[in-house]
Amino acid sequence: MIELDLALQRGEFSLELALASPARALALFGHSGCGKTSTLLAIAGLLRPRRGRISIDGRTLFDSSTGIDLPAAWRGLGVVFQDARLFPHLTVRENLRYGMPRGAAPAKCDGVVQLLGLSGLLKHRPGQLSGGQIRRVAIGRALLRQPHALLLDEPLANLHREARVEVLKYLHELKREFALTTILVSHQPDEVIALADSVARIEDGRLAALEDIRTFQVSTASPDTPQARATG
Fold first, then answer.
1. Which residues contact 51 (CB under 8 A, 6 or more apart)?
2. How far is CA 69 from each of CA 17, 54, 124, 166, rounded to the nearest angstrom?
3. Which is more confidently placed, 179 or 1?
4. pLDDT digits (tens, 9 = 90+) for 9-49
5. Does the pLDDT at position 229 exceed 80?
6. SS3 letters across the chain
7. Nearest to 6 by CA among 232, 219, 202, 231
8. Which of 8, 126, 210, 224 has the fewest CB atoms within 10 Å around its CB?
9. CA nearest 191: which of 210, 206, 208, 213?
């Protein structure tokens, strides 16, 4: 269960968002500037709401009424940002291990490396990698934190078509392999359809609709919807 009840202000922009979803994979969907990433940053503990409550799978991360505000490092979340944020001076292996809790079994790292197809890249540094490879390493590092939930901020942004297909394939495999609550930020319908079970449509900092993935797929496929016309 993902429960959000947020009110926050960023300059002239205000966000007032409340939703509760039992979905294992929830997408925050909408146009640029609607509040998707602000919501994700608040969940991650990198942006403090003016008031509200954030709870994932029964764990309260923030509650202004009771004074709960867990630091980002204590929230048990794996976060993948658009810009990946790998350490340029470390190898792929070192970047991956940086995310692992102390005492974690090496086999865990091996499993993620195999799943993401990173075996041949472990000695490389980020500057030697393609955009798709960088994104896969960032996803692997987030998973190796052994998080309670995974947050993905536009994981396919700024990738060329071949790299998008590549990373999307690996993300789809991860969804099947890991019973992990995932919150995805995206403005791409195909990405949402492939990875999410439920979709929160956000417009101008407000929840416009909360839909299951089949309803979303039908609505975005229709040529009469504004979103279909915009992406068609």
1. 7, 64, 65
2. 18, 9, 38, 37
3. 1
4. 988 899 999 999 999 999 999 998 899 999 999 999 999 99
5. no
6. CEEEEEEEEECCEEEEEEEEECCCEEEEECCCCCCHHHHHHHHHCCCCCCEEEEEECCEEEEECCCCEECCHHHCCEEEECCCCCCCCCCCHHHHHHHCCCCCCCHHHHHHHHHHCCCHHHCCCCHHHCCHHHHHHHHHHHHHCCCCCEEEEECCCCCCCHHHHHHHHHHHHHHHHHCCCEEEEEECCHHHHHHHCCEEEEEECCEEEEEEEHHHHHHHHHCCCCHHHHHHC
7. 202
8. 224
9. 213
Question: Phi and psi (nearest 5°) for 167?
Answer: -70, -35
Amino acid occupying residue 101 = P
- The mean per-residue pLDDT over the stretch 96-118 comes to 79
Cβ–Cβ < 8 Å for 131, 162: no
pLDDT at 81 over 80: yes
How many CB atoms neighbour CB 207 within 10 A? 18
pTM of the model: 0.86
- Can you list the domains of the chain with their CATH numbers? 1-76+187-232 (3.40.50.300)
Rounded Cα gap, residues 182 and 156, in angstroms: 15
